[in-house]
Amino acid sequence: MDVVNLAFVAAVLGSSAPVLYAALGGALCGRAGLFNMALEGQLLWGAFSAVTVSWWTGSAWAGVVAAVVTTTVFSGVLALGAVTWRADPIIVAVGMNLLALGLTGFLLRELLDATGTFAPAGLPGLPDLDLLDGVPVLGALLGGQTLLVPLALLLAVAASLWVNRTSVGLRLRGVGEHPEAATSLGVVVPRYQRATVLLAGALCGLGGAQLSLGDVTAFTENMTSGRGWVAVAAVMLAANRPLLVLGACLLFGAAEAWGFRLQGLGMPQQLTDAAPYLVTLVVLVASRLRVRRRLDEADPVAAVSAAHPEAVVHPEETR
Amino acid sequence: MTDRLPDVADPAAGAPPAAELRGITKRFGPVVAVDGVDLVLERGTVHAVVGENGAGKSTLMSVLYGLHRPDAGTVLRAGREVRLRSPLDAIAAGLGMVHQHFRLFGSLSVAENVVYRAEPGRRGIFDRRAAEQRVAELSDRIGLDVDPTARVDTLPLGVRQRVEILKALHREAEVLILDEPTAVLTPGEVDSLIAVVRTLAAQGTTVALVTHKVQEVLAATDRVTVLRDGAVTARLTTARTTAGEIVEAMIGRGLQPAVNPRGTVSSDPVLEVRDLRMAAAPGAARVRDVSITVRAGQVIGVAGVSGNGQREVVEAVLGLRPVQSGSVRLHGRDLAGLGVRERRALGIAYVPEDRPGMGSAATLSVADNLALGHHRSPPLAGRGRLSPRAVRSQATELVRRLGVRTAGVSAPLGSLSGGNAQKVVLARELHHEAPLLVVEQPTQGVDVGAGEEIHRLLLDHRARGGAVLLVSYEISELRALADRVLVMLDGAVTADLDAADATEEVLGAAMASARSAPRPEEGA
Questions:
Q1: Which of A180, A205, A297, B495 could form a disulfide with B510 if both were Cys (CB 3.0 to 4.6 A apart)?
Q2: pTM across the whole model
Q3: ipTM value of the model?
Q4: Does B327 lie at the interface with A, CB-CB under 8 angstroms?
């Protein structure tokens, strides 16, 4: 296999990993019937806390642990607000995203005494994997990556197995699909929702740590720059299925990597930067059209409810 | 509460009945939905619980399934008293219920739905193959053909209902409650459901079948308990009863004579429905060659047990549901292709049966509710702007004229009693003197006093030369209001009677069976 192509794939894997963590968390929440739109804010918080603790303790892994713990706590806002207190999850998420942006900027100045970017010499970053050096393909793919990159891929597979092959996963799917039916069979819906929201927080913590201690070793204000939103798009595109989430994230990563290449060929940067978002739009529209056509053939009522999920029609419930 | 035992002889003497309700009373606020009802479900029998809408049969079954806690009375299961705080307790006690609105996960497979929260497998790993085997086994046992791997939302409603039955059987239900199971089924599916029910009973499962369709009672059940107004009016053995006897117990006797002075009926037809045909759809009955003529100054009543095509005919007149063939004309003009708004503009007013869902908006004010549908044109609006002052003054005037009891025109409609809310809807629809008024169940959920006022309003409308198409399940109401009464059964008009001839015996027979009904005549 061509070395250039392997390098390209490696770049895609690296740039996809933070998005993949966030998107997996979002997909699990989606399975539980809760739309987690706070991925951007959680990623950003994870990135900030990872860098801060890594700088304070001198250990990048301590930073990772701190990112997981504090982002899980941060996601408690969504668990408490949207599940326990039944606030609109979108409004809570908007608040969390804005809070994360403002709070990380503020604490950057207060705790780390920096504005804009914090990247001092001696800030410990995550080490590259050297375990696979010399192994033909894998070595080239994962050689320059941190442990968090292959872990993200493994977690995507694990999440898929968990959702599809375990009893708890089956119940989780039911919770999101028809909470009343799940309740009528004795499943406590809010418990499942809270647990998945917190789990998504932990995953976003890992994604944030990969962003600020893996991809680069620095924290910059708003350094996620929309990765959490791309993750939200991936979740919707994949209809909450973990393996498809993986595919969607790799697609976005590839679009980003292709963007850099096109830039090298003289395309203006503003245009190439838009590549991942353009791909998102195209794929979202295309998948929507396909679903519509399939449902149109099958059942007009289902087609209506697919086009307007807010107006879900249960034919058996109309009297 | 009484200790009176049911007067049906017990064939399986010795063994306690599978389930028993004793002296159950359930109130919702001031309304007594079920009043001291006893019900015995013998092991291995199919027991029909029948009654009109609002007779209390669903409430009674909800008590048996732990959805409602009774205000008085006890539930016994296999001879032992059980306390059912929730459906989970009921499931644990060996009860199962198939609700009218299914509780299934559309994107999951049949097997996943059946075993949900009672999954086979070890150490948390879900054993899909074992689940599918279990479903195949269960469906074999009762002669069902269900593909365990199919996604539920790809299945027709009849098959989804089987999945609900399998769900209960997987949880070892020995008493199965089916709440209006045929409401969503096509005639073919009804037959196979009846076969399944008979098989279940033969294997020892006890089935309580809630229905208001007399044919199903006769075809599927062993015993019948008839409820009316929350109390038992008859306990029958199916083999020794007739459709007429059941209908009589359902609708009751002793109705007041029709107080219905005939107005002047002009010869001009306002509404002409000709040879209307509509196919059955999920949740909708079929309509077979229905013709109805309503003239100015005339009230045409449509009788029948609900679900026999009345609602579908009304929806065809309003333009809410497409028709297969036939025509709907208003003052001679064919309405084909016109939408609801155009039809209303041409002079059709509509008071739907589903008042909270379709007829009104509970969170909007009384004034806004009175403006709905007339909010685009003067005097309420002009040049795209609504005039709040005009809306309020119109509302004040209508509230005063109809005697609606409300805290004020800006009070939300939801704060009004059922009768007053219905008067608001009726006021809105009558206000513009549309030549044709279509009314469904005008006094449903309305107290007696307000009901009389609503009847008077409808008769006044007729006296002013209005044409009314009235759908009602209450024979007394039809006799009080209608000039002619049509009876619908399974989508066809089975009788067309002068109101004077529409006695409960004749109507009951026409509602129960096509064979014993008079031949349909030409439209009135």
A1: B495
A2: 0.72
A3: 0.83
A4: no
